[in-house]
Amino acid sequence: METNGETDKIEVSDPEVEMLIYNRDEDGYNYRERRHGDWTKNYEFYRDKVITNRLTQRQSVNVPLMKQTIRTILKDIDDMPKLYFENKDNDKDAEIVKNAYWEWTEEQNKLELQDIVDKRQVLLFGRSFIQIQIKDGRIFITLQDPMDILVSRIIDPFDINTSRFLIHQHIFIPLSTLKNDENLNQEAVKDLETWYKSEAGIVKVQDNRDQLQEKNQKMSDMGVQDVDSPILGETYVETELHFVWRDDEKDADGNVMESQIFLYMLAEDRKILFKKPLEEVIGETKDHFWRSHYPYVTWGDDLEKQDFWSDGVADIVRTPNEVANTWFSQLVENRTLKNFNMNLYNSNIEGFSPQTWEPIPWGMYAVPLPDGGKMQEHFQQMQVADLSDEFDEMTFVIEMIAKATGATDTQQGVQTERQVTLGEVQLALGEAKERTKGISKFYVPARKELGMLFTKMMEAGYDRLDIITLEKKGRNTSKVYSRDIAPKDWLTEKGYTVKVWSQDEKEAKDTESLNKMNAVKANMPDNPVVDDQYKRELLQFGGFDPDKINEAMQFEDAKRQAQMAAMAQGIIAPPQAGGQQSASPAPQLAPQRQQQKGVM
To answer: What is the pLDDT of residues 502-527, one digit of tens each?
Structure first.
């Protein structure tokens, strides 16, 4: 960044650098800037930070309405949705390996924790972003700060890929790392290294270090683990990833390429360190997926057709929280002033300076009075209102927030006198939870999209993925077996489809399915096909994994074969009409008992 000490205006001559900066500053940043003040206040209230002022917020106090509301809603949102990858070639072995690889990726990336922070960001800011990439031989899935992402104002809020660009800002990388990366333009890296030795460069290095530390602290406060702090002595370069749709690019032979996404790496608004088609960076798939898809997933819970940067729950709470803080600040200040027991006195009394008095227990203070004067005539206590009526007004504000967000007293475990019967309490609590669970309608599709990016990332970059070792217990044994998983174990001709479900939806669907199966089982108790399907769904409802389900069904099949062999030998009688069977020493499942196992 070139500066003359009076301005930070950047001087560039590269047309592509100018294009990238224009996209960022004139389009993406201006489109998002209107949300910055709201996001800052939302975050500060959640972190219990308040900014005092001389007029309304004189005391550093905060009513924790923001955190109370966010945490109340967060506890009732559904658990992380489950993804399952189905093989289109009906290769069950490859399907098992693929899903085992996904479970391993979930564990390595701590997706359970990231899922909680992801939902918290949507509640606070209205938007959240997840990035997926291949690095160091495995797939990294990383939650991103909404303040680091810019999109075009011309975008369909329901599809991030309709934006003409996506910019990932504030990526701080050590200069030594850039110098060792063969994929980057090393001449541009050397120019940066020379610039960092200038006066302006030295200032920028310190600024980058401070920004990185502040950014990591914020993500740590939000709950993201394993964030790195700046290392003293390192020179950090501020880089940006610009994903840009280009229509006029030419290939090596001079032919105009199909419209697709290009990836640029811009450093310090000065040098382009990297430029390639995104498909060339990630890898090619049969459907050329990465020509038209960004490696990012985003979602919000209050989508609007005309505005990508939608509101969050915190935007409902922010203004009432400001009002409550103002009132509470005034209440605290007035109570403090009243406790001082301040007095007015007659300053015309010569030699009298009450400021020199020190408050002590049972203190006695001499007060000179004019002849014939009375103490009451020369002293008057200063009246300070106690503002006790503000508690009722603050209660009204808190109830207003609860009604607007669904974070009611019953959800927080607070007993209320107005709801007398248990049925009324349960009804109110159920309605509040249904409002909260409605958020899953927005993030479940986002998780399905993440699953699609995952499978396309594996398909395109299989040659850059390391072999991993998975461990699993064997069937009918406590021994643990290990297996090396390579890309050839899950790669198939047609690929995979992604199934996703939330825990609440899955349980409700399984319950309904079992109720229907109970009716079928009651009318067809001896049908082996019905019996197999019923038992399989019962095991799925019980939470058994696919391997255990197959193991249990193999046992049931062996038991059936044994019963059929016994009937053939006359050891037991065949079942009678209506499903009844004559008594015999051989064990047998009664249809009535089997029906009782269903969930009604």
So the answer is: 766 666 666 777 777 788 888 888 78
Strands 82-87 vs 165-174: parallel, antiparallel or unpaired: unpaired
Integer-rounded Cα Rg, in Å, for the chain is 34
C-alpha 126/C-alpha 78 separation (Å) is 18
- 3-state SS, one letter per residue, for 423-491: HHHHHHHHHHHHHHHCCHHHHHHHHHHHHHHHHHHHHHCHHHCCCEEEEEECCCCCCEEEEEECHHHCC
**DSSP, res 569:** T
What predicted TM-score, i.e. pTM, was given to this entire model?
A: 0.73
In a 13 Å sphere around the CA of 387, the CA atoms on its Cβ side amount to 17
Per domain, the residue ranges of the chain are 15-57+126-310, 503-576+586-596
Is beta strand 271-277 parallel, antiparallel or unpaired with respect to 496-501? unpaired
Burial class (CB in 10 A: 0-12, 13-18, 19+), 405: buried
Q: For residues 222, 223, 224 and 225, what is the CA-based torsion angle, rounded to 10 degrees?
A: 140
Q: Is 13 exposed, middle or buried (0-12, 13-18, 19+ CB in 10 A)?
A: exposed
Query: How far apart (Å, rounded) are the C-alpha atoms in residues 598 and 206?
Result: 65
199-230: per-residue pLDDT in tens? 777 777 777 777 777 766 766 665 565 666 66
Candidates 529, 461, 531, 530; CA nearest to 491 is: 461
What's phi and psi for 140, nearest 5 deg? Answer: -105, 130
| Distances, alpha carbon 296 to alpha carbons 124, 292, 532, in Å | 20, 12, 42
Please give the helix or strand (H or E) that residue 100 lies within, else none.
Answer: helix 92-108
